[in-house]
C-alpha cells in the first residue's frame, strides 16, 4: 500500500486529503498521480470504484495552483458522460481544493444557462461538463477552449455506449494540441483505442486491475424466475428485499419505462423506493440522489446511464431486475457495492428469456454465482412454475389436434369452391357498368368532327352526315354547340376586313336582325366590342 505523502503532492493538498479521512492511495491513484504531476499523458484502465476521480483531481489541483484564469477561457477541462458524474467530480474539487484559490464551474444540461454563463464570464480554472452542454455553449460563443492546459476524459467507454464519441472528437480538436490529457476507461474497445492513438501523446498506460473483473468483496447470487411475466419478476424482487437485510440498495433495469414501473410497484407494496433515469428533471434527479446518499431513501431504482460511476460509499445491496444486454454493464452495476474494502451482496433475476444474456455474463466473470430459491406462491401472483414449462407444450398440442381435422376436410371444401368460381366470376359483371365508361371514349372523337364542322363549305357532306347524327345518341348536343362554332369565323375575319365578302356580311345582317339589333349596315362591319359603345351611351343621353 502506498501513502499519499509518497506521491509528490503539495502540503496543502495532502492536508485536504487527510481531512477526508483517506491516508492510503489505491493502485490507480498510486500509479497515475506521479505521472500526472510530471505533465505526461495518462491512459488509465480501471474498473469503477477504484478511485479514478482522485487520481486526476489531486494532480490537477497541484498543477493549476499558479496562474490566473481569463474570462470564458478555462484552464482545465473535465468531460463526464452523465450529469450525476459531473456533479460528483464537482463535489471532489470542493473537498480537495478548499485550501487553494482555485474556482470551478459545472456545465450540465437540465438547468438554466444563466448562472453557468455568469461563472464563465468571471473566469474559471476548472470546467466540469457534459459534452452536449459544453458544445452548446461553445456554439453560442459563451466559451473558448483555446486556453485549456489539462483535459480529463472520464468513463470513456460509457461515452461510447451513449454515442458521445463524435462530440468527444470535436472537443479534442477545439482544444490546443499541446495540452496534457488524462484518459480513463474501464474497458478498451476498438473505438476507444483509436481515439487514444489519435489524440494522446505517448501516454503512460496504467492498468489497476484486469478489465471486467469483479471485486472479491462482492457476494453474487442468481434467482431463477419461472416465467418471463413482469409480475413474476416484481414479486421475486419484493421477496428478495424482504428476505435480505437491506440497509440500502440499487435496483437496475434495462429500460427507463421499467424503472418507473418497478419503482411504482415497490412503493405500492410499502417499500421506500424512487426512480432515477435520464428523462426525469435534473432537479428531481439531484434531490433523489441526495436522499439516497444521506440514507433517507432506501431503494434507488435506476438505469445504467443514470447510476454508472456514482460514488455512493456504503451501498449494501445491488439487485439486477434485468440481466444487462452488455456483459460489461453487469460489472459496473455490482461495482456500486463492496467499495473501499466493504462487503456487498448482489442478486440477479433470471427469467427463461434471459438465458442468452446470462451466458455472456458468466463467460465474462468466469465464475458461477450461487443460486437462491425463493419460497413464493407463484399462483398467487398469477404465475405457476409448471405453466412456464410442460403446460405450454400441452396447450400447443391441443389446438394442433383440433385443428388437423378441419384441415383434412379442406380439400373437400375446395371442390365446391372451384365450382363456385363461375359464380364468383359473375361478380365481375361490373364490366357492363364499366362499358358505358368505355363508350364515352368515342365522344373524344368530337375533336376531328369539330374540324369537319368548321369546314362548312361542303353542305352536301353535312347533309350526308345528318343521318348519322340522327342515328347516333351523341348527335343531340351538337345543335347546341353549332351557334358557338359559328361565332369563331368572326374572330378569324376581324383582321381581314375583306369588304368583298358580301355573302358573309349578309349573314351578319341577318343575325343582327334576328337579335333585334338596330345597328344594321355600317355598324355591322365593326367588331362586337366596338358596337357596344353606343348602347352604353344611349341610356346616358336619355
Overview of the molecule:
- Mean pLDDT is 77; it is low at 386-436, 450-455, 461-477, 497-507, 509-520 and 536-542.
- This protein folds into three domains: 2-207, P-loop containing nucleotide triphosphate hydrolases (Rossmann fold, 3-Layer(aba) Sandwich); 218-388, P-loop containing nucleotide triphosphate hydrolases (Rossmann fold, 3-Layer(aba) Sandwich), CATH 3.40.50.300; 496-524, no CATH class.
- The protein is globular and about 80 Å long.
- Helix 2 runs parallel beside helix 3, helix 3 packs across helix 4 and helix 14 crosses helix 15.
- Helix 14 links the parallel strand 14 (317-320) and strand 15.
- The protein contains 24 helices and 16 strands.
- The strands form three sheets. Strands 5-6-4-7-8-3-9 form a seven-stranded parallel beta sheet, sandwiched between helices. Strands 12-13-11-14-15-10-16 form a seven-stranded parallel beta sheet, sandwiched between helices.
- The chain starts with a strand and ends with a helix.
- It is of the alpha/beta class.
C-alpha Rg (nearest Å): 44 Å
Distance between the termini: 124 Å
Query: CATH homologous superfamily of the largest domain - what is it?
Result: P-loop containing nucleotide triphosphate hydrolases
Quaternary organisation of the protein chains:
single chain
**Range of strand content:** 5-15%
CATH architecture name of the largest domain: 3-Layer(aba) Sandwich
Helix proportion: 40-55%
Could you give the order of strands across the largest sheet? 5-6-4-7-8-3-9
CATH fold naming of the largest domain: Rossmann fold
Query: What structural class is derived from the secondary structure elements?
Result: alpha/beta
CATH class of the largest domain: Alpha Beta
* Total of domains: 3
Q: Report the principal-axis shape.
A: globular
* β-strand number: 16
Q: Main β-sheet, in a few words?
A: 7 strands, parallel
Low-confidence stretches: 386-436, 450-455, 461-477, 497-507, 509-520, 536-542
Residue-averaged pLDDT: 77
